Amino acid sequence: MPDLKFGDAAPDSEECSAIDALVAAPTLDRRGERWVIGGRTREQEARHLLLPGLHALQDAMGWISPGGLSYLAERLQVPIADAYGVATFYDLFHFDPPGSEQPVHHVCVDPVCAIGNSGSYIAELRAKGALVHESPCLGQCERPPAVFIQAKNGASSDLSDIAQSPAAVAADGPLRLLKRIRHMEGSDLQTYKRHGGYTALQAAIETGGAKIIEVLKESGLTGRGGAAFPTGIKWESVAKQEALPKFVVANADESEPGTFKDRMILENDPFSLIEAMTIAGISTGCEKGWVYIRGEYTTAAQRMDRAINEASASNLLGAGILGSTFNFDIEIRRGAGAYICGEETSLFNSVEGYRGEPRSKPPYPTEQGLFGQPTIVNNPETFLNVLEIVNYGVDHYRSAGTPESPGTKLFCLSGDVLHPGLYEAEFGITLRRLLARAGGVTGDLKAILLGGAAGSFVDSRQLDMPLTFEDTREEGLSLGSGAVMVFSTGVDIATVLTRLAKFFREESCGQCVPCRVGTVRQHEVLTQISNRKPTTREDVLLTEIGSVMTDASICGLGQTAASAVQSAIQLGLLR
Amino acid sequence: MTRDTKTDVTFSLNDLTVTVPEGTTILEAAREAGVEIPTLCWASNLTPVNACRLCVVELQGSRTLVPACSRECEPNAVIHTDSERVALSRKMVLEFLDTTNDLTESPDLQNLIDRYGADSSRYSKPKRMDEDVKIEDDLFIRAYDRCVLCYKCVEACGDDAQFTFAISMAGRGSDMRVSTEFETPLPDSACVYCGNCVGVCPTNALQFKAEFDLRQSEDWDPQRQTSTDTICSYCGVGCTLEVHTQDNEIFKVTSPSDHSVTSGHLCVKGRFGWQYVQPPTRRSPTNH
Ligand SMILES: Cc1cc2nc3c(=O)[nH]c(=O)nc-3n(C[C@H](O)[C@H](O)[C@H](O)COP(=O)(O)O)c2cc1C
Ligand code: SF4
Ligand code: SF4
Ligand code: SF4
Ligand code: FES
Ligand code: FES
After folding, report:
1. pTM greater than 0.90 (yes/no)
2. Which terminal residue of chain B, N or C, has fewer Cβ atoms less than 10 Å from its own Cβ?
C-alpha cells in the first residue's frame, strides 16, 4: 500500500488517456518501499509535470474533476491536497463541470479594453448565450476589446492567427529589434536565416562565452522585464557558478496591463528568442532552456513550439550545435492565468509544480533559481538586444540612446491614440514625440499610465520628459515593461483606478499579509471614494495602506500595488 | 564547512554592536540581545515562511523592510527594530488581520494591537474571512474565520513534521484558504489525526474538540486549568506529553516545541490516546 492517499474518486477514460499521453506509469518498484524514499524521488522527477498535467485534464474535459486530479496526483506521486492547492492557484482551471460543450470567452475588462467597449461586447456575447468570464489584461491591448476563447481539445485561441498581423509595428529611427517582426520575417527558419538569423550564434561559438559576457557588460544592456538589472552582470554570475545543471529561462508570462510586446516577438520572430537563449546557454554553461509563456498566448506558444522543432531538426538545438561541442535544448511551459507567475521566483515554483508564490530573496536566481540551480532569467526583449550587440558590436549599439540607457526600447502604445501598436524608439525619445508617432492622442490628453498597472500616471506637464531609465528615475517614475496607456479627457479616471486596484486584489498570490489584505482594503476605499476628492481620513488610510504594501510585501507585486493610485491622487486626477 | 571554521558576524542592532555566528537570523540575534520582535508565522520547530510580515525591521540600504525571522545577519549591517517605518508597518499588518479575522482567542495579537495602536474602526465594511466552523469529528475543529493563513498547519502536516500532506493552501489572494483536496471533509482525506496542525496554530483556528466544547458551553476557565508533564506510554520512543486539564478532565495534550525527540509534534496515540483514561462520551454526547 502506498503511503500517500489519493482519494476514492475514479477517473474517466478520457482523463486517463490525457495523462497517460503525458507521463508514463512509474517504473519504480514500490514493494516494501517507504514513500519518503521511493515516492519522494519520484516526486522530484515528475512533479514539474503537474502544470502540464492540469492543462491536459482541463483541455480534455473542460474542467478538473476529483477523479482526474486523483489519477494525475497518483501518477506523479504528488499529494492530492497539494495538487489541488496548485490547480486552484490558476484562473484557467475550473473545478465544476462546465455543463455545456461551449467554449468560455475570456473578455478583457482592464482599462484599455474598458474604454474600447469591452462592456458592450460582453453584453452582446451574453445575449447570444455565450459563456463569458471577465478577464484581466490579455496582452492584446492594441486591438480592444480583447478576447481569449478557451475551448477543449486544443481549440483554445487568442485570435492572433486571424487578426491582421501584426498590428501597427513602427519605429522612430532605424528598426533594430522589430526589423523582422514587422513583416513576419522571422517566422520560419529559412526566412529567418535570410534576414540575418543565426549569425550571432555562429559568432558566439567562435569567440567564446567570456568574450560575449564582456561585450554585454560594455554594451550597458539592462533587463527589459521591469527591474532594469544589468544583463552582462547576471550572465557573468551564472557563468561563475560551479553547480550543475544551470538553466536559461525566457520570461514570456507578460501579464502587465498595457503590455503586448513579448507576444509579438514570440508570434512573429520566435527564432530570435531561440538563438539568443542558445547564446546565453553556451556563454554561461547552461544546457537547458525554458520558455514560460502565459497561458492565454496560444498562437505564440504554437509558433514557438514549431520553431523549436525546426531548430532542433537543423542542429540549431540539441547536441553538438552547429558542429560545436555545445549542447542546448529548450522546453516550453505554459502558464495558466496568473500575473504573479511573471515574477521570476514565482515562475520557478510554477514550473516546478508548486503554487506560484514568490520566494524570498536572497538567495537570488543566479545562485539558486529553477530547481534550486543557478539560473538566468530574462525578458524576451532583453534577449533580442543580445543579438543586436553580438551582431553589430558595442559601438553601434551605443550609437542609439543615452550613455546610461543605451540602445532602443519597445513601447506598447494603447488607449486613446490614433494608431495603437508596438513602437521601437531610441531611449531619450520624449513622450510627446512618441505619441505623435502613434498618430497623436484622439481627443484631449488627460493622463498617461506609464509602465502598466505597476507604473505611475503622468499628465501633459511631463510630455517633454525623455524616456530613459535615468530621467524617469529622477521623476520617481519607471519605464517598467514599456506600456504607455493613453487616456483622453473623455475617460473617467476613477473607474480606471478602481479597476487597477481590483487587478492587484485579484492577482495577489495571497502569501503575505500586506499585499493579500492591503490590495483588498485599497480597492474597498477606492470604491467608496468613487469619483470625488478623497477626504483627509481616506487619504491617510490610502497612504498608510500604500506604505505597508510598498515597505513590507515580499515581492514586486505588493511593492508596486499602490504606485498608480498614489500617483493619480498626487496629480489630482480624482476630483 | 565545519563548525569551528564558522565565522562571526558583527553588526549594529538598535545602535548596539552585536556579534553572532554566521547564519544567525536577525530574530535570533535580537532575542539573544534582549530586543523583542513580534512574530506570528514563525515557530522554532518549523521552516520560516516569512509570510505575515509582523517581524519586519529596517535594514539600512535596503529599499524595503526585511523579515527578521528569516533574514540572516550580515557583516556591518545597520538594523533598527523599532523605527517609525517599522511601527507603521506592524500597525497596518495588525489592522489588516483584525479587520479580516476573529482574533478573540489570540491574546498575543490583542496585546500587539494595543501596543501598536492598530485601529480597525477606520475601515468601513471590510471583507472578512467568514466561514462556518468545521466540526467533522470528535478530535478537533477548524474555525477558519480565525485563520490568518500563517502556513504553520500546512508545514506541520507536510515536510516539517508529519509528511502526510493532508492539507494545503488552495485558491489565490484573498480567496486563499487552508484546504484538503476539493474541500473533502478531514475524515475522508489523507489526515491521520496526529493533531500536529492543531499544536502549531497560533490563533486557535484549529482547536481540540474538548476545548471547543468547554468554550461553547462557556465553561472555559484558565483559572481552573493545570498542565502535567508525563511520558507517552504507547511506544518506546518516549515522547514527553503535557496533559492539560480543567477540573481534572483532560482537554488537550501537547508536547514542548523545544523537546529533543518530538519538537512539539506527536502521533495520534500520544495526542488523542488519553480517551481510555477518560472516554470522550463523558463530554461529547455525539460520540458513540
Ligand atoms: C508581479 C511581477 C510580474 C512580473 N512579470 C514579468 C513578466 O511578465 N515578464 C518579465 O520579463 N518580467 C516580469 N517580472 C520581472 C521578473 O521578476 C524579472 O525581473 C525579469 O524577468 C528579469 O528579466 P530582465 O532582467 O531581462 O528584465 C515581473 C515581476 C513582478 C514582481
Ligand atoms: S507581495 Fe503579493 S504577490 Fe508578492 S508574495 Fe506577497 S502576497 Fe504574493
Ligand atoms: S491532524 Fe495531522 S494529518 Fe491531520 S491535517 Fe493535522 S497535521 Fe495533517
Ligand atoms: S489554521 Fe491556524 S495554523 Fe493553519 S494557517 Fe490558519 S492560523 Fe495558521
Ligand atoms: S488586453 Fe485589454 S487592457 Fe490589455
Ligand atoms: S514572523 Fe517573520 S514574517 Fe511572520
Report:
1. yes
2. C
